[in-house]
Amino acid sequence: MDGTLSPKPARPTARGRMFFANPGPTNIPDSVLLATARASVDFNDPNFIAVYDACVAGLKRVLKTEQHVFFYTASGHGAWEACLVNTLSPGDLVLIPDTGYFSDSWAKMCGGLGIAVQMVGADWRRGCDIAAIEAALAADKDHRIKAVCAVHNETAAGTRLPIEAVRAAMDRVGHPALLMADTISSLGSYDFRMDEWGVDVCVGGSQKGLMLPAGFSFNGASEKAMAAHRASTHPRHYFDWTEMLTRRHRSFVGTIPVTLFYGLQEALRLLLEEEGLDQVFARHARLGRGVRAAVQTWSANNGPQLFCQNPERLSDSVTAILMPQGHNAEDVRRIALERFNVSLGGGLGKLGGQVFRIGHLGDLNEPMVIGTLGAVEMALELAGVPHGKGGVQAALEEFARAG
Ligand SMILES: *Cc1c(COP(=O)(O)O)cnc(C)c1O
Q1: 323 alpha carbon to ligand 1 midpoint, in Å?
Q2: Domains 30-272 and 276-401 fall in the same CATH topology
Q3: Does any ligand 1 atom lie closer than 6 A to the CB of residue 303?
């Protein structure tokens, strides 16, 4: 720590492109980077307002909503906090399906904000049972639960929670709680339908499927959420929706991160116009299948295996890989980075050292994923981790399938 501002010498392997396989932040497309490289613009400039309006309209198409959107200059945690303080009051109770590290972090945040939490217990390797969520709601006869806070894609476990099934469970028991969905690592990677699924508040962030730098997040809010907002007594100011609605952009308390909107405009153009959302979803599904084909092959000989054991809950945006006993995932990550300039996600919280993660969301194609899988296979060999050979070959075969 000599305090120098000059960059350290590059790693000897840092030639060519780094293969960046973290499940967030993700690769930023060159055209998005270029769109953000601009001189300052007044956020009330009519040219910027046109960009802003186009971004709001485009983001609503990605969220599949015609309701309200509020933005924050904050990472996803800011939008998590915003949805709680805008719709709930101190002492309110929320129900949280325990999908993994991110559901636990959201619960911890509730604690810090004076909101009580009831967790729905689950095996992180199988995902939370819808029947268990339904039973918890059915048992809540006097409707003390004010919101169900569900993580659509549990980035730490590589599992998906079907939000539409959570909504159906709430409807079957006639529970009036708000449905809040964290779509931070699913939006722009696989389908999310805010209005059709009856989601009252959704939480999104910039640096995952939207392929932008971090530091920018948002909520979608339904009319029911807006009514809850008017009744909520939680102290708030920067995140206050009523305060925002008095502003010209009907969002943002304070300066708007203008350059991120130029980036968002380009990212939305790529998703909605150049590739098309359905093609984006099909690509992520394909990339997920290829990664899983490789992991299934490595899992022979007591090798690393898929963390998610429930085929119905596999995530299309991230795969978590569980190491065999006695081997440390951090060794694989270190070798991949130092020898091959490939960045992998680590295990979070109590999964630290046991799990590494391959993000397959955002600006990625098959050859990039093959490159990452190749580095992982070499790193397993170099770290002395037992594994079945031919994981990359299995992914090649998956990707070479017609259709
Ligand atoms: C990344 C992530 C978050 C946290 O977002 P930050 O931008 O890191 O604050 C929350 N939930 C999920 C599911 C995530 O993947």
Answers
A1: 24
A2: no
A3: no
Greater pLDDT, 262 or 14: 262
Q: Residue 78 CA: which ligand 1 atom is closest?
A: 9
Per-residue pLDDT tens over the stretch 361-389: 999 999 999 999 999 999 999 999 999 99
> Quick one: 40 exposed, middle or buried, by C-beta within 10 A (0-12, 13-18, 19+)?
exposed
Q: Ligand 1 center to residue 347 CA distance, Å?
A: 14
What is residue 338's predicted lDDT score, i.e. its pLDDT? 94
- Per-residue pLDDT tens digits for 119-137: 999 999 999 999 999 999 9
Q: How far apart are CA 346 and CA 251, in angstroms?
A: 35
Please report the pLDDT score of residue 354 as a whole number: 98
User: What is the position in ligand 1's atom list of the atom closest to the CA of 77?
Assistant: 9
CA of 151, closest atom in ligand 1: 13
Q: How far is the CA of 154 from the centre of ligand 1 (A)?
A: 9
Which atom of ligand 1 is closest in space to residue 152's alpha carbon?
Answer: 13
Q: DSSP for 272-324?
A: IIII-HHHHHHHHHHHHHHHHHHHHHHTTTT--EES---GGGB-SSEEEEEPP
Map residue 121 onto helix, strand or coil: coil
Ligand 1 center from residue 2 Cα (angstroms): 32
> Could you identify the residue written with the tokens 């995952």?
208
Segments making up each domain of the chain, as ranges: 30-272, 276-401
Strand blocks (E) in 152-256: 153-154, 159-160, 178-182, 201-205, 217-221
- 104 close to ligand 1 (CB < 6 Angstrom): no
Please choose from 26, 73, 185 the residue to mutate so as to test ligand 1's pocket, defined by most ligand atoms within 8 A of CB: 185
- Tell me the CATH architecture of domain 30-272: 3-Layer(aba) Sandwich (3.40)
Single-letter amino acid code for the residue at 258: V
CA of 23 to the centre of ligand 1 (A): 10
Q: Is the peptide bond before 25 cis (omega within 30 degrees of 0)?
A: yes
Kindly report the CATH number that applies to the domain delimited by 276-401: 3.90.1150.10
100 in helix, strand or coil?
coil
